[in-house]
Amino acid sequence: MSEGGLGAPERHPIPWQDPEFYDEEKLDAELRRQFDICHGCRRCHNLCDSFPLLFDLIDEAKSMELDTVASKDFKPVVDACTLCDMCFMTKCPYVPPHEFNLDVPHLMLRYRAVELKKGDVGFVSNKFPKPIATGNSPVLLRHYPTGRHAPETALPGRQCRRLPALTEMPLCQNSTAKP
Q: Range of 50's domain?
């Protein structure tokens, strides 16, 4: 087993067409497996709000371990993830090719896919992925390269807002304009 090597992380494809991908029991088992490893390491504590929420959730549990945390309590942890990919690309020593095979951003996408399949996602959450608020998410853009144009296609005619300085393109344009 090697950790913290100089090699780049290896990203595996998301098996979203596999029926087991949407199995809630298998998702819960994978959430618990990855969260238990994260809880033991805590190297990612200063990234997005997901990790402090997760660590507080576990620390406030009866046994101070993941075994006494209810599965329904994972939702705020998932909702706080912005899919920025910083945990995967820079912080976590347990991403592939490590045998622990942690990929928290893909796990968050899986959780959200299961929610969507069950119908537990409202209209706005369905139309506006959280990473749009923080800019271009590497994970989102890998799967949806036009992610930055989602607001203008979802709600044409919306009042335009300037994006952060990383681009000169306004958030929304005339609905007939090509992105």
A: 19-124
